[in-house]
């Protein structure tokens, strides 16, 4: 409603304050793919039994 005639309904959903996601991306952009996968695996192993393939 605040946007008035400038509003374009495109179905996007924003869960954070404006600019929050962009700041988060900039903050963690240096983190490469293998690191988050390794951390996720470690967290998963701590919560559940490690898979037999590891």
Outline: elongated
Which residues form runs of ≥5 with pLDDT under 50? none
- The amount of beta strand, in percent, is under 5%
Residue-averaged pLDDT = 77
Structural class: mainly alpha
- Write the element-wise H/E pattern from the N-terminal end onward: HH
Oligomeric state, counting identical vs distinct chains: single chain
Q: How many E-type strands?
A: 0
How many angstroms separate the termini?
53 Å
Quickly count the helices. 2
Radius of gyration: 19 Å
Largest sheet descriptor: none
Q: Roughly what percent helix?
A: 40-55%
What can you see in these coordinates?
The structure is a single chain. The chain has 54 residues and is mostly helical. It has helices at 20-28, 34-47. It has a domain at 20-49. The protein is elongated, with a radius of gyration of 19 Å. The mean pLDDT is 77.
In short:
With 54 residues, this protein is an all-alpha fold. Helix content is 43%, strand content 0%.
Question: How are the secondary structure elements laid out?
Answer:
Layout: H1 20-28, H2 34-47
Could you name the key traits of this structure?
54 residues, mainly alpha, 2 helices, 43% helix, elongated
């Amino acid at each position: 409603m605040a946007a008035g005639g400038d509003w374009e309904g495109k179905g996007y959903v924003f869960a954070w304050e404006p600019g929050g996601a962009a700041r988060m991306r900039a903050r963690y952009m240096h983190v490469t793919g293998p690191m988050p996968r390794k951390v996720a695996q470690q967290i998963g192993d701590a919560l559940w039994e490690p898979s037999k393939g590891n």
